[in-house]
Design goal:
This protein has 18 helices and 6 strands. It is mostly helical.
Length: about 450
């Protein structure tokens, strides 16, 4: 999630954070606290927001002052229009928000502390597409800021797992990653190996000694694709909504039936585990030594985009035990996995999990000007040397977030994406003109520990 805390409200802005807290993060925490062996990567930019002063009060105000009233208003309108079933569903859905606020209070209004026992992997500071940065120093700034923030928040128990933003990998990144203590990253190799190839179930060693872990697109596509489980008729339709963006319809056009949808999550979990188990068994039979299927999902898919996603994940945990398929955290799996050669990867880089498996989602014609402007700003900061204080560095980090070009490429919230990108681009210029004393109050808690020295170090 980009840094939206303090930057706008409805329809775009920090409301995204409150929705994710209520519909994704707090429900997922309940599952994690029950011992689900799921690998969690917490991006520093999300942690910055969860740690920002004042979020507890604004989250509570959003639930009580916005969502309570909008549910009630939409239910009244539906009932007045003769849609009693839809009205009842909107009223039922309000209980999700009430339960989230109760869970938030029970955790001392500190979600970041609640995630601490589960925080295994980290990421770059603001989720920048690292191969698109203009310099090794810029890569170092993003990586060092992210890893140092993780250590400062969660201690030295980090085992070196680093989520490459957008799975964007190129061999030249490995020096900066290694220097920051990174031991393993996930990469996308579908374009190189082909969908379903057994090679996706092995790990590799990169040119700089980093362990490269392919994500398994065949397994992921059972969930995350146009024909995946969330598209099924009984599940809640995210795109068909009331005036205040509540969703009382199912994908098949009928009124949403929560019990029917939950029953389907059980069947889909059983199917997912059975298919994954069969895939692993085939791979082992054909090429002994393979046997790690990494299913990587954006957390917000579970609960926000796919309303029943957390219930499905809980059912997957139960089905793995029932069908005797080992579900294991990635750090633990890597301790037991011997990497294969790096040779199979040489012709496939740079790569990402974006459209086409390349970097075009963040650098193609629709966003080329953004890509060049971000690189130019990076070089300006780098060349400024002593004038590049914390303000310029933090504005640069915000500018480099992968979210702005992604939103433009996909046609999502275009005015907001352009506004945020331009604001941070101007912020870099103004900070350089003002010097080290530039005001960064509007950035609140974004990358508060970023060190200009990491950008200026040789390399």
């Amino acid at each position: 999630m980009p840094y939206v805390e303090g930057f706008g409200t409805w329809p775009f802005g920090e409301e995204w954070l409150w929705e994710a807290l209520a519909s994704c993060y707090l429900p997922l925490l309940e599952l994690l606290d029950r011992g689900a062996p799921v690998t969690v990567s917490l991006t520093p930019v999300l942690c910055d927001q969860l740690q920002a002063p004042g979020i507890a009060g604004r989250f509570g105000a959003f639930i009580e002052g916005v969502r309570r009233e909008t549910h009630a208003e939409d239910a009244r309108g539906l009932r007045a229009g003769g849609h009693a079933q839809l009205a009842a569903e909107v009223e039922r859905a309000w209980s999700d928000y009430a339960r989230a606020l109760q869970s938030f209070g029970a955790r001392g209004e500190d979600v970041l502390a609640a995630f601490a026992p589960h925080a295994q992997w980290t990421c770059s500071a603001t989720h920048a597409v690292l191969p698109l940065l203009a310099s090794d120093a810029g890569v170092r700034l993003q990586v060092q800021t992210g890893t140092q923030a993780h250590r400062a928040r969660f201690g030295e128990s980090w085992r070196g797992g680093f989520w490459l933003p957008e799975c964007a990998y190129a061999p030249h990144l490995e020096g900066a990653l290694h220097d920051a203590g990174v031991r393993a990253v996930c990469i996308e190799l579908t374009g190189a190996l082909g969908l379903g190839a057994a090679g996706h179930l092995r790990t590799y060693v990169g040119a700089g000694g980093i362990v490269l872990v392919p994500i398994d697109r065949e397994t992921m596509s059972l969930v995350w694709s146009a024909s995946g489980y969330p598209a099924s008729g009984a599940y809640r339709d995210y795109h068909h909504h009331t005036v205040h963006h509540h969703n009382p319809w199912a994908n098949d056009g009928s009124g949403y039936d929560h019990a029917r949808a939950l029953a389907l999550t059980q069947r889909h979990a059983a199917d997912f585990v059975a298919r994954t188990k069969a895939r692993l068994e085939r791979a082992r039979a054909g090429a002994p030594g393979g046997g790690l299927a990494v299913c990587a999902l954006d957390t917000e898919l579970l609960g926000h985009w796919w309303y029943e996603g957390v219930a499905w994940l809980e059912a997957v945990v139960e089905e793995c035990a029932r069908q005797e398929l080992e579900l294991v955290r990635l750090d633990d799996a890597l301790e037991r996995t011997e990497p294969a050669s790096e040779m199979a990867l040489q012709d496939s880089m740079p790569s990402s999990w974006g459209e086409g498996g390349d970097l075009s989602t963040w650098s193609g014609p629709a966003v080329a000007e953004m890509a060049f402007a971000a690189r130019a700003a990076e070089l300006e900061v780098l060349s400024a040397r002593s004038r590049a204080g914390a303000a310029a560095v933090r504005e640069l980090l915000a500018l480099q977030a992968s979210d702005w070009p992604f939103m433009v490429s996909r046609g999502l919230a275009l005015p907001y994406a352009h506004e945020r990108f331009e604001r941070h681009r101007r912020g870099v210029q103004e900070a350089l003109a003002t010097g080290a004393g530039a005001d960064t109050a509007h950035l609140r808690n974004l990358a508060a520990g970023a060190e200009p020295a990491w950008l200026m170090a040789p390399g």
